[in-house]
Automatic annotation (TrEMBL):
InterPro entries: PtdIno-glycan_biosynth_class_S. Keywords: Endoplasmic reticulum, Glycoprotein, GPI-anchor biosynthesis, Membrane, Transmembrane, Transmembrane helix. The lineage of its organism: Eukaryota, Fungi, Dikarya, Basidiomycota, Agaricomycotina. One of its GO terms (cellular component) is GPI-anchor transamidase complex. This is Phosphatidylinositol-glycan biosynthesis class S protein-domain-containing protein. Residues 1-25 are annotated as: Disordered. It is found in: Endoplasmic reticulum membrane. It comes from Crucibulum laeve. The chain crosses the membrane at residues 478-497.
């Protein structure tokens, strides 16, 4: 009995009430699963999304400011006409009339060449020396230039046609059909001039290891740059290289090594020649003095008939000029600097190549320089002709560029147009207006405004902001955002629908119980 009593539970324990188990709780009773809290959580997600929509819209929207299209198209209809006044000194009214008629006939025959110019022939009493007019003075000493004066023999009426030919060659020396026109570099307000002395292989010996380039530039190049300072700003750099191999093997002849016309087109070995030493967006005009290797001398240029040219220089259109110099063993027994006489010859050629690349016209055959013009590399007639050419080119280029900008913005819906682009377009239009206003009184001022208009129009056209989203259209944005937003929004939509139907069921129950 005692053993059984020891194993029986106490009486109080048997009579004690049972406590419910607290290990698990009813999910419907959890505080965060209550209807109010659950719906507040879902609403907070949607609130964040709705509040973020303006930020998303701002960061993904494209700024497209309106451009003055009407002004651009009306400006494109304008055409620059530069006045050219020819004053006939000591001539009668009949001679002035003959000259005017002959010029008009010449203009009619070559209208494209005279495009953009308005020619007026004045008598001495109508002339004004301050308006940039040209004076034609009868003379019996030949054709001579003195500043803006042309001395010309006018013995009889038959010489008027010859005078018109001379005036045409001085005023409009450019012809679109001329091969020389393709050599001229595109206009730029800034140029870099790079002078390079390249030895094909200095290790072979008898190389040119130096040159007095500063002295040569001061003597032959700086006078040209000073004269053309109205049109361009120039930066000069120079270098010497001791290994500049050709990319081909010249043809070996009995007396020399020859370069064919095909060789000249690939003469510059861009892969191994470093011709520009500084980083800049300014266009570069190269002037190269090439010294062949001692075992490939003399290196000559072959003519079309197979004969060897006496000149070792040639021009690469819109790129620069090259002079091939073959030192003789007597002049260069070992490595040495370029002799002064050879340096003068080389830079004399470089100066002529520079004039050709910049579009400075030649004087007509038979026209002599006067005393005051003999030291000048560029006469007033040549400079004025170049100014007129560049002003007309710049005006046409600015108008075409502005018209292209407007057309592109209309055609491409997602092309941004910011304040900087709109400002450049408006400033370019203003510069064109000033150009037209000043063209009647000052050729130089008209050119400056034309250059400013072209620079502003080009800057607007190549603005990086306009091209930022050009290759990222709306279809691409949809393809990028859909996988990102769909995975997040679909569960939220489903949760909203569930809560809506649950709310409707609860409302029906409440209405039924009431």
């Amino acid at each position: 009995m005692s053993s059984m009593d020891s194993h029986s539970p106490p009486q109080d324990a048997q009579n004690a009430p049972k406590q419910p188990s607290t290990a698990l709780r009813d999910p419907s009773k959890l505080f965060y699963q209550s209807d109010g809290v659950h719906r507040s959580i879902i609403a907070s997600y949607w609130a964040v999304i709705l509040l973020a929509v303006p930020l998303w819209w701002y960061t993904t929207s494209i700024e497209r400011l309106s451009l003055p299209q009407s002004r651009v198209y009306s400006q494109a209809e304008n055409h620059l006409r530069l006045p050219v006044r020819i004053c006939l000194v000591a001539g009668d009214q009949q001679l002035a009339g003959q000259l005017q008629d002959s010029i008009q006939q010449h203009v009619a025959k070559a209208s494209e060449r005279w495009n953009g110019l308005k020619i007026d022939v004045l008598q001495q009493g109508q002339c004004n020396s301050n308006d940039g007019s040209y004076s034609v003075i009868p003379s019996d000493k030949g054709i001579t230039l003195e500043a803006r004066q042309l001395s010309y023999p006018l013995a009889d009426g038959s010489s008027v046609s010859k005078l018109v030919d001379t005036l045409s060659a001085l005023i409009v020396p450019y012809s679109a059909a001329s091969e020389q026109e393709h050599r001229v570099a595109q206009y730029s307000p800034r140029y870099r001039l790079s002078f390079s002395l390249l030895n094909e292989d200095a290790a072979a010996g008898k190389a040119i290891i130096g040159w007095d380039v500063e002295q040569a530039i001061n003597r032959y190049i700086h006078p040209i740059l000073s004269r053309l300072s109205t049109l361009h700003n120039f930066t000069i750099e120079s270098q010497v290289q001791f290994h500049a191999p050709l990319a081909f093997t010249p043809q070996e002849l009995d007396v020399a090594y020859a370069l064919t016309s095909e060789d000249l087109t690939v003469f510059v070995n861009s892969a191994e020649w470093t011709l520009s030493s500084s980083a800049s967006n300014d266009p570069v005009l190269h002037f190269v003095l090439f010294i062949p290797s001692s075992d490939r001398r003399p290196l000559k240029i072959a003519n079309a008939d197979g004969s060897l040219s006496a000149s070792g220089a040639f021009l690469l259109p819109q790129w620069g000029g090259i002079v091939i110099h073959n030192p003789t063993p007597q002049d260069v027994p070992s490595d040495t600097d370029l002799p002064p006489t050879d340096l003068d010859q080389v830079f004399s050629v470089f100066s002529n190549q520079l004039l050709a690349l910049l579009g400075v016209p030649h004087l007509p055959v038979g026209v002599q320089r006067g005393v005051s013009e003999r030291e000048a590399l560029i006469t007033d007639w040549q400079l004025d002709a170049l100014l007129r050419r560049r002003a007309l080119e710049n005006a046409e280029g600015a108008q075409d560029t502005l018209r292209s900008i407007v057309k592109l913005v209309d055609q491409i819906e997602n092309m941004p147009v910011g304040e900087d682009v709109k400002g450049d377009v408006q400033d370019a239009l203003a510069a064109l207006d000033k150009m037209y206003a000043s063209s009647r009184t000052s050729l130089e001022q008209a050119f400056r405004y034309s250059a400013q208009a072209l620079t502003l129009a080009s800057r607007a056209f190549f603005n990086p902001g306009m091209l930022a989203l050009l290759y990222f259209p709306t279809e691409h944005r949809v393809a990028v955002y859909t996988p990102l937003f769909a995975s997040a929004l679909v569960p939220l939509f489903v949760a909203v629908l569930k809560e809506f139907f649950a709310w409707r069921r609860q409302r029906k129950l409440l209405l039924a119980n009431s």
